[in-house]
Design goal:
By secondary structure, the protein is of the alpha/beta class. The protein folds into 2 domains: 2-129, Four Helix Bundle (Hemerythrin (Met), subunit A), CATH 1.20.120.420; 137-372, Rossmann fold. The protein contains 13 helices and 18 strands. The strands form 5 sheets. The protein has a 7-stranded mixed beta sheet, sandwiched between helices. Strands 13-10-11-16 form a 4-stranded mixed beta sheet, covered by helices on one side. The longest helix is centred in the middle third of the chain and has 39 residues, at 112-150. Keywords: Amino-acid biosynthesis, Isomerase, Methionine biosynthesis.
């Protein structure tokens, strides 16, 4: 996508300096900064501190991290230690483990002198695949928006609600939940997006920044406004992203997603999840019981970062001194609240059978997970 008229991906390889470059998202939407990532520690910090964030982007970053690890030391021992090191950075988004497993499986059969080049080539491949996956999600999501447009008067606006940032900043490009929005807007369909603020890190501001840069009409709202808007017929559909989806279609996404799904169900508003296949965890079925929920630093809830009148970016405390903060970063939306999963292969019900039919090559692991989960 574009920033100030220039095309960017959320990460890119600097071949001249043989390093990865990223957008440091901690400073957005107020300041656009890029950063070179050139050490193992810098890769880990970039993931932990959410300089890069969003399940697909974390996976791509981890692939480049493994490429660096193989350049430093291509031995089996270092390969395993690097896998463990990066896998510990964030526990919830399954794309991290998916990318690390893919790297390890490709690299282990190779001789040590082949691994550095192969790892870098694989990282490029994973990044490019993510772009194509998200473009296809947008294509299938566009069809849903087109169907809703048919029920509207000519030129009438379609109102879409989204939560958190599942945009191009959370992927390598296009985004997941935003990809249908961009494609609908580019096709001339009048849309408007309600953007949840998504406390505590206010990632909705990133979505607003993205949509504004692309010219998509949108409104930034507090997290608790969504249900009110649905009650008054001001939301035509909800599209969110996902950090991990189970084999039966339970969806783990940014905290607050579950409440939006409940409100959508109560008001007969379609609730769709944009789902890239690497985000499916075929080894588990029950999301509430089996998905580990990351508990982040409490200071993210007790403090907030913003732009001061003098143009400086500062962090201020919003709670009384001494008040403890709790910060579960994700929640799980059970599959019965999900209207459909928008994948790169099409739209499917959020069921074991739906996912297996869409991705038959993974049907056996999914069936095994269901049996294990009762």
């Amino acid at each position: 996508m574009k920033v100030n008229g220039k095309h960017y991906r959320s990460l890119w390889w600097n071949a001249e300096n043989d390093v990865l470059e990223i957008i440091d998202q901690r400073w957005l939407p107020h300041d656009f900064r890029t950063q070179t990532v050139g050490t193992m520690e810098e890769f880990a910090d970039a993931i932990v501190e959410m300089r890069v964030r969003g399940a697909p982007l974390i996976g791509a970053t981890a692939a480049y991290a493994m490429a660096l690890a193989m350049k430093i030391d291509p031995s089996n021992d270092h390969l395993e230690k690097s896998w463990q090191y990066f896998n510990a950075t964030r526990p919830t988004a399954v794309n991290l483990r998916w990318a690390l497993d893919r790297c390890k499986n490709v690299l282990l059969p190779l001789s040590e002198d082949q691994r550095a080049d192969a790892a870098l080539e694989l990282a490029h491949e994973i990044a490019d695949e993510d772009v194509e996956i998200n473009a296809q999600i947008g294509k299938h999501g566009l069809a849903i928006i087109q169907e809703i447009a048919k029920s509207k008067k000519p030129g009438e606006t379609i109102n879409i609600l989204t939560h958190c940032n599942a945009g191009w900043l959370a992927t390598v490009d296009w985004g997941t939940a935003t990809s249908p929005m961009y494609q609908a807007h580019d096709a001339g369909i009048p849309i408007h997006v309600w953007v949840d603020e998504t406390r505590p890190r206010n990632q909705g501001a990133l979505t607003s920044w993205e949509l504004g840069s692309h010219g998509v009409p949108h409104t930034y709202i507090v997290d608790n406004a969504g249900g009110h808007l649905m009650q008054h017929g001001m939301v035509d559909l909800v599209i969110v992203g996902t950090d991990r989806t189970t084999s039966r279609g339970d969806v783990c996404n940014k905290i607050g997603t579950y409440l939006k799904a409940l409100a959508a169900k109560a008001n007969n508003v379609p609730f769709y999840v944009a789902l890239p296949s690497p985000t499916i965890d075929w080894t588990i079925a029950d999301g509430v019981a089996d998905i580990p929920i990351e508990e982040r630093n409490a200071q993210e809830t007790t403090h907030i970062q913003g732009l001061m009148p003098d143009g400086c970016i500062q962090t201020v405390q919003v709670t009384p001194e001494g008040t403890p903060g709790g910060n579960p970063a994700f929640d799980v939306t059970p599959n019965n609240l999900v209207t459909g999963l928008i994948t790169e292969r099409g739209v499917t019900p959020a069921t074991t059978e739906g996912l297996q039919s869409m991705f038959p090559e993974f049907a056996q692991p999914a069936a095994t997970a269901m049996k294990a989960g009762g």
